[in-house]
From TrEMBL:
It comes from Gossypium klotzschianum. Belongs to the GRAS family. Residues 474-548 are annotated as: SAW. Residues 83-120 are annotated as: Disordered. This is Scarecrow-like protein 13.
Amino acid sequence: MRTSAKHKNPATIRGLYDQPVKENDPFYLSRIQMLDNNACSDTGVQGANVSFQTCKDQVFTLESSMAGAGFVAYDSPSAVSISSSRSPFSPHGSQSCLSDPRPSPDNTYGSPYSGSSVVDDSNKLKHKLRELELSLLGPESDTVDSCNGCFITGDHQAASMASFNCAQLVDLVPKFNLKQILVACGQALHDDDMLTVTGLMHVLEKMVSVSGEPIQRLGAYVLEGLRARLESSGSNIYRALKCKEPTSSELMSYMHILFRICPYWKFAYTSGNVVIKEVLEYEGKIHIIDFQIAQGTQWMFLIAALAKRPGGPPSIRITGIDDSQSNHARGGGLHIVGQRLSEFARSYNVSFEFHDAAMSGCEIQLEHLKVQPGEALAVNLPYVLHHMPDESVSIWNHRDRLLRLVKSSSPKVVTLTEQESNTNTSPFFSRYLETLDYYSAMFESIDVACPRDDKQRINAEQHCVARDIVNMIACEGPERVERHELHGKWRSRFMMAGFSQYPLSSSVTMAVRDMLKEYDHNYRLEEREGALYLGWVNRAMATFSAWR
């Protein structure tokens, strides 16, 4: 990552794009030891460890910013459901854009972990751990008062942690499943109950697996996030052993796997293309500004569609914006995208021009967009705004600044796709629950499409999803780059910037429904409040809306 002035976009949901751009970021998993235990969520059968090739110890700082608070509840198909409504993050907001700590009325789902029986069970688990501590250390150990759990200090702390025996802990919690233990561990960390945290992390090591059930795979990456958070110090979020990065072609193949088996990016560009085609269909000169150009695959479909327009195709100009650190996945700069799209447009006899702006959204100024008189402008914002720091992170408030800048360019339409999660400004434990909820649903959606022992699937999750999870759990302040907001909050931001919502036609819904026929029947599509909601079972995962 670069300095906080240049907030880099991590792989996040972008990993679900066709041939998305991977940005070199420092979300290396701390003490990379992904446990590959073949244990079910309720038992502790130990398996083999998967170690990553490492090199010298380095300090990495994560520097994008985000905002979001609150979470919502959904039922996932497996055991206790933890699908989320997008992730919630730490508070610091200015009065102009405070995140409401209560569930947003725009979020009709509720996290099953927010004050539910799962959280109650975590308190029961902590009580059992307290009983174990007393049995190990005796009632006269130097513990702090009971309201702070069983945290102890000095020599007694070291002795107690050494005394915690994994087998005893596993025997202690047979009635609790993996999800409940993950919740209890997060609660204990929030309460600064380090003895409980240490004990539960020992238990988790026996239960998680990168090749197991969805909750086991999620648990493996959550455990790394917890370790990274424990190792944080000031602006140095965590120390990590730098693992060998995949080559460009390897990373591209991992991202393509997720693009193929999950509809999240296809949802974005299918919806966007239908709306943009409707709005600009009869324009002679079209200019599209894409703030997350990746490989430019989305525009091939639109170019092909416009080439068939009665009376001949329009001239098309595309401005592609992408952080220069994305070059690794693409294997080169944005000129590669320009060449690819130019050749494609030529094959359809479409007049085409490509302009590249290799910079982050935080750096963009109006002159970089090269808007010209007489052209019809469309702006595409796919899964990118949540990486822009808002007023809770930076006085510059790039999130709202970018919207005002886009509005000043007088676009005919702006398309927005974002993860439906609330991870921007909520405190750690709420954000932690939201992360469990949301990514539980995501791992379940991946699970139905790919075998659990598929090495390519494991690599795709590790390199395209895991680092986002670690970032949301381990990082605070400007270093936390995954800062999602619910559609209701995005709507408020757009309206404050002077936009009005563009009504979606039935053609948009039909196109997305046709696309979803390629995927599992548990994906859901719902239209409300002028937006399309893509969900997994009962959990909203992403939203699409259009503005003018």
